[in-house]
Amino acid sequence: MRKIDIFDTTLRDGEQSAGINLNTAEKIEIAKQLERLGVSIIEAGFPASSPGDFEAVNRIAKTVKNSIVTGLARCVKNDIDATWEAIKDAEQPHIHVFLATSPIHMEYKLKKSPDQVVEQAVEAVKYAKKFFPLVQWSAEDGFRSDRDFLVRIMEKVIDAGATTINVPDTVGYASPQEYGELFKFLRENVRGAEKVKFSAHCHDDLGMAVANSIAAIQNGADQVECTINGIGERAGNASLEEIGVAMHIRKDLYQIETGLNLKEIKRTSQLVSRLTGVIIQPNKAVVGKNAFAHESGIHQDGVLKHKETYEIISPELVGEGEVPLVLGKHSGRAAFRDRAEKMGFDLSEEKLNKAFQEFKKLADRKKEITEEDLMTLLTEQQVSIEDVQLFELKSVQVSYGTENIPTATASVLTPEGELKTLAATGSGSVEAIFNTLEQLVNGTVNILDFRVKSVSKGRDALGEAIVNLRYNGFTSTGRDASQDVLEATAKAYLNAINRHIIQESVRLKQTAEV
Ligand code: KIV
Ligand code: ZN
User: Fold this and answer.
1) Which residues form a coiled coil (predicted)?
2) 230 C-alpha vs ligand 2 centroid, how far in Å?
3) For the chain, which terminus, N or C, has the lower number of CB atoms within 10 Å?
């Protein structure tokens, strides 16, 4: 079996998706889960792009031990310096530098000649190599680049010390046959190719990202770059779970080992969906809610007689399955702590106590506490920020009737510690809540998107609200889960506003440090 490295870019390319803005605590949580999943490399962010990204990459580099942590940088000194500052404490410091090589990008975006591009790439790799033992260089828009030019620039960056060469299909234009052929061509024609790893990075604009990545593997790629749930720029990146499971289920054909712990797939997918607010389509391969649901009578009959008539992947393989109920109304703190630890949570005493209080409240109101409920509750505590004063919803009351004007009254503790209570009307309950809260948060708020969904099954399931809004020019997505969707809505709204406050506090802290 040949080993392929899984390079996860959920926290960098994935986070570039429209509407996603994860805070540092959430990124750390995702990184820890990716480590549990067994990915070889975690691209934790783009340190030079913002103080928030710098902080997240730095904290992840210090936290994660079993996966290599990398950060993205343009081929410029400042970016490389920022990435070194963020990554230097990692077990194996790795940097990912990129520069566009296609004629259209060089002429219109970079406004540089091919010779200038070669020079800049070589200088950057040489400079990065002074700090980093592992240097990945990417030919942005590599698939649409001239092949002879790729050979020329790749030979030069390998001589300069690059350890991995990435050939992205940045715009998702390739077909599997063409992308595979490109890898074969580069492997055969680039002098020094045997000294480096070749990497595939595919976007899904034509729905072929996974197929293209697999074609690259079959033609000599040693690494594939992908994201959980396939999130990423525009139509997204190749989906990690689809590649990982395809390599496992069809190992007879591909003879590839990924090192992934597939049992962590479902949990990773749900964590990323919950924290990013990006809902997984029901029929999504491997992780969609219907991926293992047999609907037609003929299929159900077949599966009952012999599972493999219609089931090529067992749900247990990816960690999906009924988890026995272990906690209820009468469970004590010790049992709760034990369950949280078994689920992989490592909460401070204070956060564990808060989670336990929330659990008790929920257990009083809800008959069965499911694994999903516990995940939601514990994740909320794990990613909560302790050292920044934020808006906190104290109460919300809505008066609604088909013949009345909906009115919401909300009491909110402000970051300044003041308790404010206000009321406003709206054309519906949700609008009344939004109008009330807008008066409390001092600013102009535009709602861009709003969704509610249930966390688990049953009529008493927790409801999760996701609010995507623009607050004083800052776009943010907030979420919260509660037994009542209107309460979840009010909290999700404030969560989105709080993200702005957290981002500002990181920025101010960094400015003060400089
Ligand atoms: O799609 C792309 O080309 C990228 C590069 C930065 C590798 O994401
Ligand atoms: Zn990309």
Assistant:
1) none
2) 11
3) C
